[in-house]
Each structure stands twice: as C-alpha cells, then as structure tokens.
Amino acid sequence: MKKTLLGVLSLFLVSMTVSAQYFTQDFEGGGVPDGWTAENAWMYGTAGSLGSAYFNPADNTTAFMCVNDDGLGNGVDGSGRLVTAPIDLTAATGQLLLRHNAYFINGDYQGADETAKVFASEDAGATWTEIQDLTGAAAWDVANVEVSQYGGKTIQLAFEYIDGNQWNYGYCIDDIEIIDAPDPDIRVNYVDFKCENAAVGETSSFYGSITNNSLETLTSVDVTVSDGTNTATETVTGLNIAPFSSGSFTTNFEAEVAEGANQMAVEVSMPNGVAETDMTNNSANDVINGVVTVEGAGVLVEEATGTWCTWCPRGTYFMDRYSDCFSDNFVGVAVHNGANDPMLVSDYDTGLTAFPGFSGFPSVIFNKTNIIDPSEIGAPSVAIMTTAPMAYVDIGASFDEATRTLTVSVEGSDFAQDMSEVKFFAALTEDAVTEGGASSGGTQWTQTNAYSGGDNGPMGGFEFLGGQAVVDEYNHTARAMMGGFFGTNPVEVTAGGGAGYIFSSMVVPANQNTENMHIVGALIDNNNNVINVMQSSVADAVERGLFVTSNKNLYDNTLAQVFPNPVNEVAFIQIDVDVVSDVTLDVYDMLGRKVERVNLGTVVGNTTLDYNTSNLTNGMYNLHLTVGDKFVSKKITVVK
Q: Whole-angstrom Cα distance, residue 79 to residue 158?
C-alpha cells in the first residue's frame, strides 16, 4: 500500500465555543493590574521592551507580563511569582477552564531546569496548590487547565517562574480567562498529503494533526475525504488525545491520482460521536499534481543520513514521499553514516561524503551532479522523470540461495548520441529494515529526532514521535555499493548502441532479506553525472539473468582468486585457464577512478601471479582482471 501524499497545509485557528466568562485579564490597563503582586523580576511591557537576544516574545503585539531571565544577565535570579487579586467564582458551577497565553520555551540552559507553573489558593495566599506545570513551546501557545474544583469559591492565582539557579530564558503571560468548559470541539492543525506531485496511477493517503479543545479525552472522530469525484467517510477509533492536546490520525482512504490538479478536501467531525456546534476550524484542502512520467526515465537520489543525526528525519520523510509517489522512476538510496549507526556501509559513506562541496547532514547527492537539501528534491526529480532519457538501463543478476552469492549486471542500451565514456554503477538497498533483520521481525533502532513535539513543524509524523524516535522500519537502506561511487569500467558507446558490465560477486548477509531488496543500476558519464538509473527487485533481476555485455564476452566468477585479503604489500592472483591467455589488471578506487593498469603477461593452466600494491594507499579497491575473452572483478582492502 502506498503510504501518504502531498504538501502540508496548516490552519492555526484557536476559537472555541464558550457559554460564560467569569474572569479575564488582557494587561491592556497600562501596568500591573490593581491588587496584583509582581515579585522580583516580573515586569509589565511589550515585546519591544521585554525581549532580548535569546528570549524574544515577538509574536505578541499587545502588552503582557513577563520574566526575561535571559535579559537579566548572568548571575541574576529571575525567579518569582505573579499573584492575582481575589477572583470571585461563587457564581460558577459545572466544569471550568483556566486558560492563558504563555511564552515559555523551557530551554533549560546548560541543563538547569527552568519551570513555569500555575498555583491556586483558596485562603488568601496562606497555602497554594499547584494546578499546572507548563511543558513549553517554541512560540506563544495557549495553556489550558481544568479548575472545576474552584467553582463556587473565591481564589487567587499565582504564575510562578523558577530559573533553576542558572542564567536561563523566561516566562511571559497574557490573556488570562476562566470560562465554562467548551462543548466538544476539534481544531484541524494540518493535513499532510504526502506527495506534492505524484505519477498518474499512484495512490495517495494522508495523515493529519488535530487538537482536542475539550475536557474529555478524544477517542474517535469521523473523517470525510473528497477528491472532487469520490467522497468517503470513515470513523477513526483508537485515538487517545488528552484534553487540550494535539495528536495525529490516519485513515484507510486512498485516492488514485489522475493527470492534472487533484483537489483534495478533508473534514474532521463528531468528536467521540458528538456533533459540534462550531465547524469553522474542522477542514483543510490541498491539491495533488498528477504527473505523466516517461517510462524508463529515472533519477538517483543518495541521502546522507544517520541514526545520530537530529535533522535527518527530514531526509527520511522526503525520500519516502517521492519513492511512494513515483515508484517506477524515483531511485532513492539512504546512505548511513557514523561508527555507531548499525546500517553503516563504510565505502559508500566514504564515497558520498567525499563528494565535492559536501558539508553535512542531512543532504542528498542529486544524480551525482550536485548537493541539495532533501526538501528540494521535488522539482528537479519531476523534470528528469518527465523527459526521455539519453539511454535505457537494464539490470540482471544471478543468486545462489545456498551460498547467498549475488552477481549483478548493468547494461545501457539505445544511447541517443555518441559518448566517449560511460561507466557503470550498482548498489543494493533494503526496505523494512529493523534491528535483527527484517526477515526475523526484530526490534527497532531509534532515530534522533529534532521534530519531536512539533515545534519545528510537521515532518511526516516524526512530530508525534519522541526525541529518540522508535522507527518502525528503515527504507531504501544502502546495503552495498558496487564498482565505486562514480562507477567503473569506462567504455565508449555510439548512438543507438549499448554496453554493459558484470560486477564482482558478493555474499548477502543472512540477516538481510533479499525479498525486500532492490538492485540499483546506473550509467555514469565522463563528468561523473548520472545518464540514467533504474532499480529492480532481486527476483526480477534474476529472472532476466546476467547480460552478455558488448565490452566483455564472458563473466566467470571462478576464473581467479586473490589473496591475502586484506593485503599489506603483495597480492597473489591465482588463475586457472585451459588456453593461452593475455592477462590485464585494471585497479579502481571506491570513487570509480582508475588508479593503474598492469599487464600481467600470458598464462595457461593453474598459475599464480604477483601484484605489488606499493603504489596504493590504505583503502578498498576493485581489481578488474581480463583473461583472454573472460573477465572477473574482485574487491581487496589494502592495509599497511
């Protein structure tokens, strides 16, 4: 099933239906309100007078009360309370709600715990009861807490800030009110249709974020979805969204994408089966652009990622988005980095991070041409996938299930023009990767997640996961790179012609599931840019079989053995042939650059030849041996 769809639409509506207001304070009276007590550093003012470099409540254009601990400077204690005058709730009955606008980022500078809490007193301040402990947000936010227990009484409130005995950030408040609890009410924050664009014929689902603006835990809603032609309503159950909290929802609805603009509308209603009186903030709309792609036109996007990388969920989201929405044309490879990342493939990571201009994570190498942010892959990918390619790519393979030995071939055909140099690149990726191996149903590795809590915006559901996000599965995960980052075995081709290459055999580890794997095959030009790329399941590639390529007559994996490996100085090459054959050795580094070519002479029978690696630096290399009309490729590691 395709996962989700298109762009993000946010509706930031805060209105709620109320029946009575028992207390209000908006701080527009010109100073600290009469009868209130402002302890220590609590001050009255505006964003212009109360803000500082690292604590800037700029989104509020009116007056408010604030402690700016940052603005006080190092060594100054900003802790204290803002205490209200007596509040008469003797006429209030039923469920009551206290709400105020709060600016509290909960920054905890250098580990010191700054807190913002609300207290209530029924005995003129002799004793106080904590009623709210704010968790913090990146901007002004509405803080809500039930105060039904104080109906029929006179109380005072205290808004307390503690800086944790450290130079910290601060706490600002505005627009305080005590009201009757609202009727059941939902606010749609946003819906995320995963694909801004999608190939015609793909299917699209979505997820959304809603806020429960009531005192009852939200367990179910009705979601109505329309694509302009079809409308479907689904009751979503199993929710557990606490009062005045936000959470996500998904549905089973999938729309098949047609060419052009697909108008999508979503409405959420019936919280816990109860009709709302106010539906003004219950809907969102968006458009999915249906694109006609060219069969056989592919784009290669190699993502620099790592489980340690706080912002890398952005790469995960956009890679999944375009893989799902252009499943026949988009080829994504997630290249993991970091010694502690369990999905690291060292030679692939080395090649990717050595790309000219590479500066950090997350980023993607786009068609081996340039580096862009994962969020920017849409437009250039669509441009390539809708244009006829310069050549077509076919992928073949053989796989020995007993030994798990995989051999891959990549062939280019129908070249649109003469090309002085074409190289061949291949990689192996796996979907549904979990700890212990996808085939064994293992537990999940965690992903460091800067999007946790939603302060950095929606990101494909990562906003609803923790700072160490438990990821159900990792997709497009690089498992092997073949032939160097920029390809190998350069050949000349003519217009209308073709060429191909068979790579060194590899053994697929037992904890990797070939049923979830794709073989990536690409053609690379003399500027190290991708000419075209495709991917194939292992099963489909095996069904096609290894290609007999135009530049090599016969691939024979048993033709030669190389030892020792790793090698310190001299590598021994054992060759067994029945006829007199010339032997040539081409050596390539992991970026696909030819390091040297050695003529090893003529052999017949079982012969061992010496290859001196003194010209090579430490690292991994591909040895390409041509023996008469046969060839073989072997990988070695040089360690000196």
A: 13
* Alpha carbons 529 and 518: distance in angstroms, whole number: 21
> What is the chain's length?
640
| 38-56 pLDDT per residue, tens | 999 999 999 999 999 999 9
CB 33 within 8 A of CB 83: no
515: left (phi over 0), alpha (psi -120 to 50) or beta: alpha
Q: What is the largest CA-CA distance in the chain?
A: 107
Q: What is the CA radius of gyration of the chain?
A: 32
CA angle 143, 145, 147 (to 5 degrees): 145
How confident is residue 72, by pLDDT bands cut at 50, 70 and 90? very high
pLDDT in tens, 580-606: 999 999 887 766 677 888 999 999 999
Give yes or no for residue 16 having a pLDDT over 60: no
- Kind of pairing between the strands at 206-212 and 186-193: antiparallel
Cα–Cα distance for residue pair 192/232, rounded to 1 Å = 17
| pTM, rounded to two decimals | 0.70
Q: What is the distance between the alpha carbons of residues 196 and 321, in angstroms, rounded to a whole number?
A: 9
101: tokens are 């606008």
CA-angle at 524, arms to 519 and 526, nearest 5°: 165
Q: CA-CA distance, 28 to 398, in Å (whole number)?
A: 77
Tell me the per-residue pLDDT of 265-317, one tens digit each, with 9 for 90 and over.
999 999 999 999 889 899 998 889 999 999 999 999 999 999 999 999 999 99
Contact partners, residue 38, CB within 8 Å, separation at least 6: 32, 44, 65, 80, 82
- CA 401 to the chain's CA centroid: 34
Q: How many CB atoms lie within 10 A of CB 104?
A: 25
Helix axes 313-325, 378-385, angle to 10 degrees: 30
Q: How far, in Å, CA of 346 to CA of 344, rounded?
A: 6
Mean pLDDT, residues 561-572: 93
- Average per-residue pLDDT in the chain? 90
For every residue of 52-119, DSSP letters joined together read -SS---TT--S-EEEEEHHHH-TT----EEEEPPPEE-TT--S-EEEEEEEE-----GGG---EEEEE
Report the alpha-carbon angle 379-383-385, nearest 5: 115
Element (H, E) at 173: strand 170-180
CA dist list (Å): 509 to 5, 112, 141, 406, 479? 34, 46, 50, 11, 10
